[in-house]
Design brief:
The chain has 18 helices and no strands. The chain is mainly α and about 425 residues long. The chain has a single domain, classed as MFS general substrate transporter like domains (Growth Hormone, Chain: A, Up-down Bundle). It starts with a helix and ends in a 12-residue tail after the last helix.
């Protein structure tokens, strides 16, 4: 029989295919969340849609994810992970196929078809958002913070791949053939569906040992973390969802420049920040990284909204990726290490928190942009970006509240709640 020391190092080798499948799963999440925004301008022109309608697709996407993660967490604890993680990939595949054929299936109301397809693939991504972090956290290892950061870095690398791949395919197939591009991308979740049919999964935490949901929802620390992940999610997703359209319609730049210099660089900095923390996180106070990152993201939003030079605005959009890099994964790992025996319910609440920010933020930007008068001093999406500044700024306040709570508990617990290095994040 293996000792604990041996198990800690042998089991991760056994679970390497599982971890790789989780990385691909986060790639699928990046694909689903970011492929439609890359097509926003094409869809607006082809079907005479508004900014608000495009923002509404993002709202539907993330709202459905919230409902799925909150509605299935107890079922996951009862029936296990595999049925739901495979179902998530299958729904992501079917939703993309539906999205591609929506104009043909609903010739008189293509937007209705796009919304219904969004509901389908969003349901799949909701299951992925709930389960991928939980699967990685459950794998026996002494480097969970690094694994979690690397998992979420694959969202950024996935975003880069989606932008580059979509840009290349648009050049090959032309914008009028965008459904072909969506169908090609649908192969990825289908492939990972078969991966999760066979990879090993760690056993769940027994009911008798699992932290009660009531314990989580009555903890001031946990509630602040949920608020923080919502604000961080909004700050991240607004920029990833709107940079492409912002560069093309407001800054007057070409789509390729907006996607490559703006969105790809945003994703590269997002992923680099997460990978660097995964490698050096044990030596760095996570609160400091999140706090200064939030301040930097606030500055980036302001420059993106107000800079007269379009290149400077676009660089500010891209640079925001570094500022928001740790806000989402840092929050998850912090909660997971503070409540190590929590089950799927904890990850459901965290996923719902982050996804709620991702739902409200992009939709709010589109809503505000449509409401801006034509003769206003700033263009509609510049006003939207200016409003987006409120999310990272509120994250700064949330982190200060966490630090104040930390100080109140230091004497009683002997260490800070946020701690330093990988002890808490």
């Amino acid at each position: 029989m293996f000792t604990y020391h041996t198990t800690r190092y042998i089991l991760p080798i056994m679970y390497k295919p599982t971890i790789r499948a989780c990385y691909v799963g986060n790639f699928v999440g990046a694909l689903i969340n970011n492929l439609p925004p890359l097509l926003f301008v094409i869809l607006i022109h082809d079907f005479d849609l508004s900014f608000e309608q495009m923002g509404r697709l993002a709202l539907i996407n993330f709202s459905i994810q919230i409902m799925v993660v909150l509605g299935t967490s107890r079922l996951v604890d009862r029936y296990g992970v595999r049925p739901f993680i495979t179902l998530g990939h299958l729904l992501a595949f079917l939703g993309l196929v539906f999205f591609a054929f929506a104009p043909r299936l609903f010739p008189g109301h293509p937007y209705m078809g796009l919304m219904l397809a969004t509901v389908v693939f969003s349901s799949g991504v909701g299951l992925l958002e709930l389960l991928l972090s939980a699967i990685v956290q459950s794998v026996p290892s002494d480097a969970k913070a690094a694994a979690m950061s690397l998992l979420h870095s694959f969202y950024a690398w996935g975003l880069i791949a989606v932008v580059l791949g979509t840009s290349l395919m648009l050049a090959i197939f032309k914008s009028s053939n965008w459904p072909i591009i969506v169908l090609i991308w649908s192969i990825v979740p289908l492939w990972n569906f078969f991966n999760f049919m066979k990879v090993p999964l760690a056993p769940p935490i027994p009911d008798t040992h699992r932290t009660a949901t009531k314990t989580l929802t009555t903890s001031p620390f946990f509630l602040l973390v949920v608020l923080g992940i919502a604000l961080g999610g909004a700050a991240e997703i607004i920029m990833s969802q709107w940079t492409s359209a912002y560069a093309e319609t407001t800054l007057g730049l070409s789509k390729s420049m907006g996607d490559l210099l703006g969105l790809c660089l945003f994703a590269a900095l997002l992923g680099t920040g997460r990978m660097l923390y995964g490698k050096y996180g044990k030596k760095i106070d996570p609160w400091q990284v999140m706090f200064w990152g939030s301040l930097f993201a606030t500055l980036c939003y302001l420059v993106a909204a107000l800079a007269p030079n379009p290149i400077i605005s676009l660089i500010a959009c891209a640079s925001c990726g570094l500022g928001v890099a740790l806000l989402w994964p840092g929050s998850i790992t912090s909660a997971a290490n503070h409540f190590p025996l929590a089950g799927a319910s904890m990850f459901a609440i965290l996923a719902a928190g982050g996804t709620s920010g991702g739902a409200i933020g992009p939709w709010l930007i589109g809503l505000i942009a449509d409401a801006v008068p034509a003769n206003f001093i700033l263009s509609p999406l510049r006003v939207g970006m200016l409003v987006g500044t409120l999310f990272p700024l509120a994250m700064v306040i949330c982190l200060l509240a966490l630090r104040a709570l930390d100080k109140r508990n230091q004497e009683a617990k002997g260490v800070g709640i946020m701690g330093s290095g990988s002890e808490s994040i």
